[in-house]
Design goal:
Layout: E1 5-7, H1 14-31, E2 36-40, H2 51-58, E3 67-70, H3 82-92, E4 97-106, E5 114-117, E6 137-145, H4 150-155, H5 159-180
Parallel strand pairs: 2-3, 2-4, 4-6
Antiparallel strand pairs: 1-5, 5-6
């Protein structure tokens, strides 16, 4: 399992670093035929918290055999429906490997960085929300500085920072899936939606 790793998305090698880390983690998962769930957490109602839905939107063509995506701009996975979505995933899939993606606040020197960790993330921790931990592996993007008035900090986060994080995270995930599983077959292009249709925004 990967140890905590910080990636600078401004580096030209950032996408390849993320791709290779994820590929190493996913290879045994694919061999064991476990379903891979990419769970993008957040809401488009707050700039700082929109990282997850943006990544989900960029990955909507990722879905293929044994790879499933939850959370995008149209159907976000957020505080109000997260518990239900986790229950749905655990009921629908046998022994799923969940890659959880979310925005977070951190120290000034880490703003704009990506953190990959081989453990669950704690959604809503910056807002002191009591939400279930989720993910066999977590990818968080540090969008702004932690401290006082987290709600206002998230609302006033630069969209550029969030978009840069979303671009690198989505491309890293996409290329790791291509590397470990390969591209979709033509008949798969017409199968599967990028997210469960019964999720309510």
């Amino acid at each position: 399992m990967v140890d905590k790793l910080v990636i600078d998305p401004s580096s030209k090698k950032s996408i390849f670093i993320l791709r290779d880390i994820l590929s190493d983690e996913l290879c045994p998962i694919v061999k064991n035929k476990r379903p891979i769930i990419v769970l993008c957490i957040g809401t488009d109602r707050s700039t700082g918290d929109s990282l997850g839905p943006l990544v989900g939107d960029k990955l909507k063509f990722l879905v293929r055999d044994k790879v499933y995506l939850y959370g995008n701009l149209q159907y976000p996975v957020h505080a109000k429906n997260l518990s239900n979505i986790i229950d749905e995933i655990n009921i629908k899939y046998e022994n799923p490997f969940i890659i959880a993606i979310d925005a977070c606040l951190g120290s000034l020197q880490n703003v704009g960085k990506i953190i990959v960790d081989g453990k669950p993330l704690c959604p809503g921790s910056a807002m002191n929300k009591d939400l279930p931990k989720v993910g066999n592996l977590s990818i968080t993007g540090i969008v702004n500085i932690s401290g006082a008035m987290e709600f206002m900090v998230l609302q006033n986060t630069r969209l550029f920072t969030v978009m840069q994080l979303a671009e690198v995270i989505s491309k890293g995930i996409y290329h790791s899936i291509l590397k470990t599983i390969g591209g979709r077959k033509p008949n798969q292009l017409l199968e599967n939606n990028s997210i469960s249709e019964n999720i309510e925004a």
